[in-house]
Amino acid sequence: MGQFGMGQSVRRSEDQRFITGHGRYTDDINLPHQAYAYVLRSPHASAKITRIDVSAAMAAPGVIGVLTGKDLEADGIGPIPCTAPITNIDGTPGKYPPHPALVTDRVRHVGDQVALIVASSAAEARDAAELVEVDYDMLPAIADTGSALDAGKPLVWDDIPNNLCFDWHMGDKPATDAGFAKAKRVAKIDLINNRIIVASMEPRNALGHYDQGEDRYTLYTSSQGSHTLRKLLSGKVLNVPEAKIRVVTPDVGGGFGMKLFLYPEQVLVLWASKKLGVAIKWSGERGEAFLSDTHGRDHVTHAEVAMDDDGKFLAWRFETTANLGAYLSNYGPFIPTAAGSGMLAGVYASPALYVRVKGVFTHTTPVDAYRGAGRPEAAYVVERLVDKAARELGLAPEELRRRNFITPEQMPFRTAGGLTYDSGDFRKNMEDALRNIDQAGLAARKAESAKRGKLRGLGIACYIEQCGGGSDEMAELRFDPSGGVTLLIGSQSSGQGHQTAYAQIVADGLGIPFEDVRVVQGDTDTVSFGRGTGGSRSLPVGGAATSLAVGKVIERGRKIAAHQLEAAEADIEFKDGIFTIAGTDRKLDLIAVVKSSFAGKLPPGMEGGFDETARWTPPAGTFPNGTHAVEVEVDPETGNTEILRYVVVDDFGNVVNPLLLEGQVHGGVGQGIGQAMLEGVVYDQDSGQLVTGSFMDYAMPRAIHLPDIEFSYNVVPCKTNLLGLKGAGEAGAIGAPPAFINALVDALSPLGIEHVDMPATPLSLWQAIQAARTAEAAE
């Protein structure tokens, strides 16, 4: 192993340019004579457009063009596609209404795109937008997830009754019903998984250019996958072959799922560039992001678990209403259904499970994947229900889990959710976490808090998720004549440290200096193929493809080395960048072999150059898992909560870079605690107006809200991944919400409080405490 090989904590090489201000983001890119776009958005959640007059705006200084939905429609530009078809219980397809980049006669959420103003400067475009006259005929709105299906509620789409997009199910209903029929105890819970603003550090943006001479579009944009956007654009949107579109993604300042999708603005700058004959740049503002970036979560769930006398789980039942917003984002229906429902079996050996999900339209911003994409929602409901069941049985939460864990000896284990776990030691993760957080001393610490008038609690959550599977990825290694190597890979970094991690895999496999490996992503003209980054797939899938490409390079080099050393290929060994004739001191280093290939010193019939390509299709997903343990203290007089300690024990299989891994967990925990403690999108239920429309109203976690995160991991290699890796990017956000809420409930349980919904703000906790005290006084 070299100095910067696999398993070593290497600092991110890309940070040199980031921390010195030399990163290159989309907003840093400018084209000659470019114009600037501003999107006029609807101020209403639900209304008919009766008139649009753009004449005054067209006459404004600097204005190049003002375009409306009718212009878009006349040019045959298709709607934003939803690529996640869902079939109803009765076998009929779900409802998939169109999502135009500019609306024509109806707006369906605050922020809906009404017109595009293009001018010589961003300020002129913004000023001209105020001159566009739009007459709206206001209509009633529905913004509440839980009541969207109720009779008599306003309809988002006139031809979709009761706002029902789909009614989907999964699992074995007869077996589940049988499990409940013979159950001795049944625990139930109703909970809300609150809607979240993604709030990436870098807002969305797009720079579009149509080259008339080449009849070709180029889009520069912050994304999680250039190839994904190119495919979506080429199909029924622009209606041109993929070869006619180039998508370039430079550095990306955070994505978290939200930047994986195709957005109206990306379509508009390309279409308008062709129509108006100039390159067009749109830079989103933070206020626009709140209105137009896809949101996350937003579920209302009822869950039940059936148990025998010993607390063994017999069956699970889940019923969820999932808010999809006014339009369907690219993968919106997939997230509350297939993406997460298989994980509702958790880490437990229960025999039966049944899930029913109803997707609903509301007059709100579309909802799609947000860090974890369905798996955090599943872990939250399972781990809250298990905790509640334990309390109702009079058992310690960890004891009920011990009685139901899938054991290592049972692996591979096919769960009631239809998935096969290949590896994991769930009990060890939990026991390590409880030891690390000193559960044995909790009683004394609770007593100490009580002396100060505070309530202390400890909560755990044992999560598992499926990721790093699905579609393939391709890696290409290219050597130049001097021996330098470039890896071209179709995933896309948005802050994870891909440049470092991929370079470690290449350097470790080829025995070359880490700093000599260049990693290229994000340009569809340079990287021939890619699936993008999502579902923690970059290293499990892209890393595996890279490893295969490394193997091909070694085999090619072995042939050349055998020829030059005048030895049989079978006698050539490779280690640490050196080809050696076994049992001798005769050798050639890899770089010398590479250089000779360009010099034509090759075996007969072998082509010159030194490039290798490999593709990896995972046979199944990976299943990272672990336990989060949280200790909190609540001030009952104010509702303020302090996290005293936070312990994480994870299993990510083999580890490429422990330092990067820890950073991923820290970031995920921060986002998970943000959702559980502070963050929550609020819409006015009558008007559909976004109440939490800025950081003045939407609370983000700060450093003061998190203690040091005590992280460790157990290595249980994945058996379905070439490198033994399990995805890690989403895990922190999956385990944090249930662990934190379980800790809160433990702290508040002496008051008779059994559940609090997220976000558990000081106000909501204070109200719950006052209600509990009032109820106790009334008894």
Concise overview:
By secondary structure, the chain is of the alpha+beta class. The chain contains 19 helices and 28 strands.
Descriptive report:
The protein starts with 14 loop residues before the first helix and ends with a helix. 53% of the residues are buried. With 779 residues, it is of the alpha+beta class. Helix 10 crosses helix 11, helix 10 (375-393) runs parallel beside helix 18 (731-748) and helix 14 (498-510) packs parallel to helix 15 (538-565). The protein contains 19 helices and 28 strands. Helix 14 (498-510) links the parallel strand 20 and strand 21 (517-520).
Which helices and strands occur, and which strands form pairs?
Blueprint: H1 15-19, E1 35-41, E2 47-53, H2 55-58, E3 63-68, H3 69-74, E4 106-107, E5 113-119, H4 122-129, E6 133-138, E7 164-171, H5 173-181, E8 185-193, E9 205-211, E10 216-221, H6 226-234, E11 245-248, H7 264-276, E12 280-283, H8 286-292, E13 299-307, E14 313-325, H9 335-339, E15 353-361, H10 375-393, H11 397-404, E16 413-414, E17 420-421, H12 426-436, H13 442-451, E18 455-464, E19 473-479, E20 485-489, H14 498-510, E21 517-520, H15 538-565, E22 572-575, E23 578-581, E24 587-589, H16 590-598, E25 611-616, E26 625-634, E27 641-651, H17 658-677, E28 709-713, H18 731-748, H19 762-778
Parallel strand pairs: 1-12, 10-11, 14-15, 20-21, 27-28
Antiparallel strand pairs: 1-5, 2-4, 2-6, 3-5, 7-15, 8-13, 9-10, 9-12, 13-14, 16-17, 18-26, 19-20, 19-25, 22-23, 23-24, 26-27
Helix pairs in contact: 10-11, 10-18, 14-15, 15-16, 17-18
